[in-house]
TrEMBL record:
Residues 4-122 form the Response regulatory domain. The lineage of its organism: Bacteria, Bacillati, Bacillota, Negativicutes, Selenomonadales. The modification 4-aspartylphosphate is found at D54. Signal peptide: none annotated. Pfam families: Response_reg (PF00072). Keywords: Phosphoprotein. InterPro entries: Bact_response_regulator (IPR050595), CheY-like_superfamily (IPR011006), CXXX_rpt_assoc (IPR026413), Sig_transdc_resp-reg_receiver (IPR001789). It comes from Sporomusa ovata. This is Two-component system response regulator (Hybrid family). It comes from the Bacteria. The keyword Cell membrane does not apply.
């Protein structure tokens, strides 16, 4: 797999030094930007796998601005950003990491550190395959098994409840499509009986769900102590309304003190 690394630094020599330090990495090409504006243009126009970013650069868009915009974007926040800057105060380092920087290296690294630490950080960020992974990959290829590069990007994460909800809906959709196919294949009499049974079953499920909802709310809000003819729910604002009791319904309430027969 080929990787494109974006080097963002206003000093040409710094960009050249980093390129030399990373020259031993396989399948890596470099793109360069001397300021924040051009860095964002490259991000938007090219497929970038990693960026090495300086914080102090000329122009209106500083390094922090580049980092902030990339990490705020659904399309680009997956790109690992290694900050390589002369800014060494704790507050700046903390801010960069909180904004989503993958790592923070203080410039300048000694030549030996630059040749060892920086390549290792880049390999970790790009998730380079280990020797064991490479061996397994070679074995698969030797046996003629298809090896496919990933063609999907993670753009976000949803909660377990949201996963469960969409899984239920997807499964329900597949189930209904299957039922529809079966209905199409039925004759008129069989179709009538089947539809009747389905509607009765669905009504029973909905009625049970409604009863359970009202029972839970009666217990939670102690509505059983409310004296009234009928409890209604205003769907627009969530207000629960109760009609005043008439003389005729007073006797009914005495017979049904919990008022559950009035639920809708």
């Amino acid at each position: 797999m080929a990787y494109q690394i974006l080097l963002v630094d206003d000093v040409l020599l710094n960009r050249k030094v980093v390129k030399v330090a990373l020259s031993g990495l396989p399948d890596v090409t470099f793109l360069e930007a001397a300021d924040g504006v051009n860095a964002l243009k490259v991000i938007h126009s090219e497929t970038i796998n990693l960026a090495i970013l300086d914080l102090i650069m000329p122009g209106e868009v500083a390094g922090f601005d580049v980092l902030r915009e990339i990490k705020a974007s659904v399309l680009y926040k997956h790109i690992p950003i290694i900050v390589y800057s002369a800014v060494s105060d704790t507050a700046s380092i903390k801010q960069a990491l909180e904004l989503g920087a993958y790592d923070y290296l203080i410039k300048p690294l000694k030549p030996q550190e630059l040749q060892t630490i920086l390549p290792e950080k880049v390999k970790d960020a790009l998730q380079f395959p280990s020797k064991k992974d490479e061996q397994q990959l070679a074995e698969k290829e030797s046996y003629g098994q298809a090896v496919r590069e990933p063609d999907q990007l993670v753009i976000g994460v949803v909660t377990e409840e949201e996963v469960a909800a969409i899984k239920y809906l997807t499964d329900r959709k597949a189930e209904l499509k299957l039922k529809l196919k079966r209905l199409i294949d039925m004759d008129k009499e069989e179709l009538y009986c089947t539809l009747y049974d389905m509607i009765i079953q669905e009504m029973g499920e909905v009625s049970t769900a409604c009863e359970q909802w009202w029972d839970e709310k009666y217990d939670k809000y102690q509505w059983a102590n409310i004296v009234g003819d009928e409890i209604e729910l205003d769907y627009d604002n969530g207000q629960v309304l109760v009609k005043k009791m008439t003389k005729e319904s007073k006797k009914h309430h005495d017979d049904d003190p919990e008022g559950k027969s009035a639920k809708i």
